[in-house]
Amino acid sequence: MVGSSDTMEITASLFANLPEGWNAKRFGDILAEPVRNGIYKKKDFHGHGAKVVNMGELFAYGFISNQKMDRIELNDRERQAYLLQDGDLLFARRSLVLEGSGKCSLVVCPSEETTFESSIIRARLSQIEADPRFYYYFWASPFGRALMASIATRTAVSGIRGSELMQLKVPVPSLLTQRKIAAVLSAYDDLIENNTRRIALLEEMARLVYREWFVHFRFPGHESVRLVDSPLGMIPEGWEVRRFTEVADVLSGGTPRTSVPEYWGGEIAWFTPKDIPDTFYVLDTERKITELGLSRCNSQLYPADTVFITARGTVGRCVLAAVPMAMSQTSYALLGRECIPQYFIYLLTLSLVDVFKQNATGAVFDTIVVDTFRNQYVAVPPSELLLKFSEAVAPIFSQIKNLQRRRDVLRRTRDLLLPRLVSGQVDVSEMEIDVS
């Protein structure tokens, strides 16, 4: 979170060092029209009509285009006032946390009528002198976040006012420079998005192979294997029904004492639910512990490809460790027994997440306990088939991990360039960049 003194320092440094040819103007002076708060409609008007951007979409996406959304009915006057256009900037008018106030997203070529709800502010730029992508990136930069923090209220629900947003001073380079900067940053975002799509396709491929082999029983050679009755229904002959805890060890974690600085800041990744990504693998963790910290807590150093599953609160989030990691007590670590491969354990666990959630207990918040796993029975194929499966999906998991690492490098590079480009610290005026 940016404090008030930090805010003043960041914004002062921005405007004290603007490159030659850059101006500073009120944000309202580069708008085509005044900002507007979104529309509020009673529930009777929900469920059909135009798509509506809610706070969920605003916080989930930087670029809002054709995502699935709720719908509301608009009349002609409301269409005229509240429909979104390509290039509109949307800002969070209120947030439960200060960091969320003023969070900005960019509307990109909506394919059908789309509006926005009352907790959102729309800003429509004068595209004669302002490039929407440049200002989307500016508001995402530390400078833009600091400016937002300067007008955000610090009450139970933080928020910004459109009138104050228009008064904020922003840097205004030439339109060509804006477009060049936006093109550089957009190129990184396009690569990041391309990797994200490839990761999603590979993850779905791994799930499909698992379902084909172990749910639909169409594994290699299945034609010659008859189905037999079992406590789980019909399963291939030679498969066994076992408790989950006979298939995988369910292991716990721990937290070194936070008041002892010698336990923290080391090189050992320490996994908590905060570190869960949107993909199969967790590559790194927010916090690290030392060897001494590891020795003073209840966690082992779990090897790469250990399955972590969250056990408290938001239960059932499931990931693979990309590197050896320790773990907090809010999750369980799953390691296959009797050489059962981790890829099978991971996909098996993913397939059982809904069952685990249904059997979670707890008076205050949902909790998965060891008995949740012990009471779950699963069909276990012969070791030869598990080995074939692991060999079949290993290249898929390897590609996922490599693409995640590549995507993380791109994100770090973009985030390093972002403040330097939007403040003019990196000169793009002589760069040959296609801005058509």
Summarize the structure.
The chain has 436 residues and is an alpha+beta fold. The protein has helices spanning 4-16, 55-60, 76-82, 132-140, 142-151, 162-167, 175-214, 244-247, 291-295, 342-358, 370-374, 383-422; strands spanning 23-26, 36-37, 46-53, 63-64, 70-72, 89-92, 94-95, 104-107, 114-116, 120-123, 158-159, 169-172, 227-228, 235-236, 240-243, 248-251, 264-271, 281-282, 287-289, 307-310, 318-321, 325-327, 331-336, 377-380. It has two domains: 4-173, Alpha-Beta Complex (Adenine-n6-DNA-methyltransferase TaqI, Chain A, domain 2), CATH 3.90.220; 240-380, DNA methylase specificity domains (Adenine-n6-DNA-methyltransferase TaqI, Chain A, domain 2, Alpha-Beta Complex).
What does this molecule look like?
With 436 residues, the chain is α+β, with helices and mostly antiparallel strands. It has two domains: 4-173, Adenine-n6-DNA-methyltransferase TaqI, Chain A, domain 2; 240-380, Adenine-n6-DNA-methyltransferase TaqI, Chain A, domain 2 (Alpha-Beta Complex), CATH 3.90.220.20. The chain has helices at residues 4-16, 55-60, 76-82, 132-140, 142-151, 162-167, 175-214, 244-247, 291-295, 342-358, 370-374, 383-422; strands spanning 23-26, 36-37, 46-53, 63-64, 70-72, 89-92, 94-95, 104-107, 114-116, 120-123, 158-159, 169-172, 227-228, 235-236, 240-243, 248-251, 264-271, 281-282, 287-289, 307-310, 318-321, 325-327, 331-336, 377-380. Strands 2-10-6-8-4 form a five-stranded mixed beta sheet. A five-stranded mixed beta sheet has the order 16-23-20-21-18. Strand 13 and strand 14 (235-236) form a beta hairpin.
